[in-house]
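Record Probable endolytic peptidoglycan transglycosylase RlpA, 109 aa.
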Amino acid sequence: MMFLYHQGFSQAAETGLASFYNDTFEGKTTANGEVYKRNKMTAAHRTLPFDTKIKVTNLANKKSVIVRVNDRGPFVKDRIVDLSKEAAVKLDFIDKGVTKVRLEVLRSK
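=>
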């Protein structure tokens, strides 16, 4: 991942696999203390600060969403982000389970 720092903001780009939360996580507590809701535009990332806004682009179809980091993960080695089910629906990869994405940091704490 490449970071560019300017006046307290970082700009980053990262490419890799995205997955999404299984419905069994609905109502469970995320790492920042919020309750996971599949209809919210949220994500888990290993290192980005909580409340970081990231643009996620599905490289297979060029669809993009903006999500907010509120959890840690993914805990599968080859993945870079776990998305809420709503984000995965909008990126159109529910049937595949995973897809290659590009992450761009829009705002970081």
